[in-house]
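Re: your question about Vascular endothelial growth factor receptor 1

S., sorry for the slow reply, the queue was backed up all week. Below is exactly what I fed in.
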Amino acid sequence: SELGIEDQAELLPYDRKWEFPITNLKLGKQLGAGAFGVVCKGQAKGIKPEEEITTVAVKMVKRNAEDSCMRALVSELKIMAHLGKHLNVLNLLGACTKNVTKKELLVIVEYCKYGNIHNYLYRNRKDFINQIDPVTGNLDWNIGIEKLERTLSIASSKSCSQMKYAEHFYLRKDSNRSLLTNNDKRNDNLSCTGAQTDTAEVNMSPKVEDDTGDDYVVTSSAGSSIHLEWRTNYKPDYKGSVGPICTEDLIIWAFQVARGMEYLTSRKVLHGDLAARNILLTYDNVVKICDFGLAKNIYHNDQYKMKSNCPLPIKWMAIEAIRDRVFSTQSDVWAFGIVLWELFSLARMPYPGMQADERLYARLVEGYRMESPEYATQEIYKVMLDCWSLNPLDRPSFTELHQKIGCMLEEGI
Ligand code: ADE
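Result:
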């Protein structure tokens, strides 16, 4: 590994625009450690134009790590730079690559306040609110409403917006700080409720889709400009407390993961290690897919054969991926099914009591699949089974998954 970052041309180019001066970065406590390296909290000066200091997460390899770890981090950096911005993908903010030949590489990404959803679910499972009606087996949305009210009462009298999904937008005060008023209702394309405060629910028609995660600016008939931010959730943070997790949150997270994966697919990237441990939770119930250490750009070839020295997440892998190490977007869909199982079991280890070995593989080939986890609806379990179809082509696409799970959320409106 005497090569500089530009020379490690096995993958994508690295654009110097990402280079961040290491002197403007202050490292803090360790947030996590994986097979490849360490992630620390950090403070970065001037990394975002809109604020002086930004709390960030910084990924680096361990000092005594093997060269393969360094290559994985270089690859991750290039994949993230290639991916671009999406609300449900952990975004790259910058990198310090000056001393990459001396095994010093810092990859600076967004900081996600609540860490990975596996640990978050595990820590908070005792307070979980099961919204499934024990008689009908269907979701009881009223339980969710009670729970939302509870969350809002924590948020005192502040009116918070309810964001359900794509057609709903989060409204913010316009730049001259005047508050939204119900006058905005006069705009045929924009209706809002609860607009007395700085947030409100809006309904846009026609539907506007946005994959960038950027804010919209819409001018209402009242003449004031309104910033619309894409949201996929409805549970606002208040003083860092988001209240107990409920079934609807699990569906909202699943929906966002499907959206993020749909975006990865559109950028011709396969993840290769999709699992609850690689999904981060941040403000406002937003989740972000992270850890692109095993990710591959599949622009020229829609499959990728993992090298034989690469340690693999067997329990998240599709049958064909275990058999011959061939990964594809369809094997990511299988892993998405396992993520659903992790979510709706509140972070249990998949295939409880079983080892990740040849016997597991043999049973999968025979047609064995995990039972429904305790907190899944029949509809959700059906989605898991579809993701675990033997034939990769029989599995749903991430677009279909995003739509199907979106419909489940719509039922609750
Ligand atoms: N752990 C690993 N990556 C993280 C991130 N970006 N934010 C918070 N915790 C993390």
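The pocket of adenine is lined by residues 31-32, 39, 57, 90, 109-112, 115, 280, 290 (CB under 6 Å). Residues 247-266 form the longest helix (20 residues).

Happy to talk it through on Thursday.
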